[in-house]
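User: Run a structure prediction on this.
Assistant: Running it now.
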Amino acid sequence: MSDVFDEGDEKGRAAQRPQADVAPRRSRALLITAGVLIVGFFALTTFSAFWTDKRWFDEVGFEKVFTTLIWTRVGLFTFFALLMAAFVGVNMALAYRFRPLFRMPSPEQTGLDRYRQAVTPIRVWLLVGTSLLLGLFAGTSASGQWRQFMLWRNGGEFGSEDKYFKQDIGFYVFDLPWLHYLVDSLMAFAIVGLLMAALVHYLYGGIQLQTRHDRVSGAAQVQLSVMLGIFVLAKAADYWLDRFDLVTDSGQLITGMTYTDKEAVLPGKNILMGIAVICAILLFLNVWRRTWMLPGVGLALLALSAVLIGMIWPAIVQQFRVNPSEPDREAPFIKANIDSTRAAYDLEDIEVEPFSPQLTATGELADLEAQTSSVPLVDPQVVNQTFEQVQQVRAYYSVADVLDVDRYDFDGDDRALVLGVRELDQSGINESDRNWNNLHTVYTHGNGMIAAYANQRGEDDTQETSDLQWAEGQQADETALTDLFEDGYESRVYYGELSPSYSVVGKPSSDAGDVELDLGNPGSTDEGQTTTYDGEGGVPVGDVFSKLMYAVRFGEPNFLLSGRVHENSRVLYHRTPQERIERVAPWLTVDSDAYPAVIDGRIVWILDGYTSTDRYPQAQAESLETMTEDSLAPDNVFGTLPTDEVNYMRNAVKATVDAYDGTVRLYEWDEEDPLLKAWSEAFPGTVLEKSEISEELMEHLRYPEDLFKVQRYQFARYHVTDPGEFYQNNDRWEVPEDPYASAPTYQPPYRLFVDDPTIPGDETWSLTSVFTPYQKNNLAAFVSVNSDATSDDYGRMRALQLPNEQTPGPGLIANEMANSDNVRRELQAFNLGEIDPTFGNLLTMPVNEGLMYVQPVYAVRQESEASYPILQFVIVSYGDSVGIGDSLVEALADVLGVDVDEGADPLPEEPPGEGGGQQDPPDNQTREEQIASLLRQAQAAFDAADAAYRAGDPVEAARQQARAQRFVSEAVTLYDEGRAGGGGATEGTGSGR
């Protein structure tokens, strides 16, 4: 019976055994399937990113950039990965090949036996896997060095040498970084090979740590000696290269070589290099001598020397030879730093002229009014909400937070405009409407430009008003910008600073309906207007494979499922101007401000591209973000830079991005820049010649703001060329803080039409800023650069240096304006009512023989979402007076102490005879009334002259100008007589400081 039951149990166990294996098998299958799916997902994601990037580069016409960059990085990765893998693999194989055949028994070896037994069956796989893994790390590191490699391959010469090593600057910029990487890689190879060989020798008994004698076998000693020898020899090469780094290293005093570097560090590097070479020779000799005595002594000497010669001796020299007489010791090195810094930042040709502004308010009102007629009272930072509320039309349109300033020629008058592009802002779409079809096929683009005259005057440039005067808006009469072009301009904006991440455009057939919402032309009232994109931009996405690739890229299955994606569809992506430039020219640092212009009937984004380096010998290095920071600067990261610190910068490229079809063009600008030449060799055909810039585009090119900020930051200190004064810092300047910024930050530069005080009547489109003495609030200098790219003087930078420290700077002026009696009286309504005053940009400009500050004041109603800034007052500080008025003319009149009523005293008929035309003021009028009457007549004559000029009658215009000047001269004479006789201006005007 027992046999029967036993037989039955055995059969049961046999039947159950396969079932017991089912769960583990299923688990293994699931794990394998999951692993395959994960690997497949990552492979598909990687391939889709690669494939769609290639299609994008093909679409914009820069496929050579993509292929050159890909093959360079792949080549570097492959070469260094295989080299590291081979180096590690050979060392591990040699260590195993020459393992001891007999090992003395010991507890250590007994403990290692089980590891040897576990490793031996899979040792080949371990060797291959370890080699490939370490090769992967080496290749990844090498692929990130494509900039250094391509500059080394394509770099040339700068044409000038450094002072200490007599090497061309190109050696430091193009060659030295790559040589450093090669030497560092060799040291890394030696260390990794040493560690892997030592590990194998230890595992197989070639190294025994717990024995008293023969701890290292002969084979292990040979191999380790060779690896250490390679490392120490590479370290000797590293010491040799480190010598050249002394001219680019940053110290506490300057960037570059100092007295201690030359007298202690440089000799120390040479000595350490010699010791390292001797140590390497001893290590190589150890292959035959088989003793660690001499190599050990050599390595100990090298380590001790690195501490004594490399660290302690320089500190002793600095403390006892330099610090007691630092100005004298460091003078020649400071001089070299000054010269190199001025060359690296292009500061050598800045013209510094003495300027002593008058400390009293003088001049003729009409003359001052004429000189300040172009002053931009519209602050690009303040009026954003005004543009939004008045011109945005729909909630899903918006403009940039900080608007741009450009200039256009209106009937022969160069007018500055504050402008912005009416871009699509999808955050303004109702939440209920935010589905895929609307976000990516309906709401696809912005519409047109919004522009206001910067000086707040009408189209004829004669009537000043407190309201914004629109040069381009949505109303039928706001088309001055459109009227400059015979057929208007393409107003649809598919590529901009606020554009969606991607849009799918196009319709399946020509007779199909349009689906993209469009605003239409200025004056249009059709809220249901639609359009279809018909430009050349975008990547075709009609076939199934393309749909799949973009579905994976954007994580959106609607590319495969939606009927809006069809055979004629195109997908637009990488749409911000800065992103497009950075992708097609990854070697450029792109200016943080892309500004729009209408050129040849198209809205075009214009950007400035910089070449930069931190390897210019003896030039002062500084953080680019620090130098460009101010109250208007966006939160910007210069992503194309390998480091934020630079000590050389050039505006090498002017770039454009078409707002409709996304066309990217790069134009050569600085034709002498060696870095641009090197990158042009590396990426041939990507940068067009400067001669291909059209005349219309040239009219809108300007001096870049970020470069100007960098230059003014460095010039604040490096306008001093005497080493002694530089060391003492007694004439150091700084960029003043913005007096109206919520947090301490630099005052931004402003674009103005500036009169040259040395050349009367010479007005230039300029970028301007001021300096104050270091840690003081007085004004030190006014600096401007010619920003007109069509001018022969483009880039000419002048600094008007004020020897008189009594001239107040922006901070003091802002305080005096706020505390002026008449200003306080006029602004009292703001302080008591529901309206907040918002102070605009505090502008500084040379006028006549003095400096004038102009401050617009905007009114904003509290607790109202629909409120927006409206210009309420203009404050003017000129000479020793502060004035305020509803307009700039009234503020100027307040400064001069006169009352101007523009509605009275029409222009009298001029009697025949030379010198006629003015009417004698009635005897019963006060002096102030007589002055006001003469000024009104002068203003009327100026208006008549302007009308004659526009009518094409220059003779009549000149005659009226002469009459106006005579009226003004009589008014000034009366004003001066009143001051000399003790009489003053009417009480309450012309508040003095």
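Residues 1-8, 10-15, 902-918, 982-993 have pLDDT under 50 and may be disordered.
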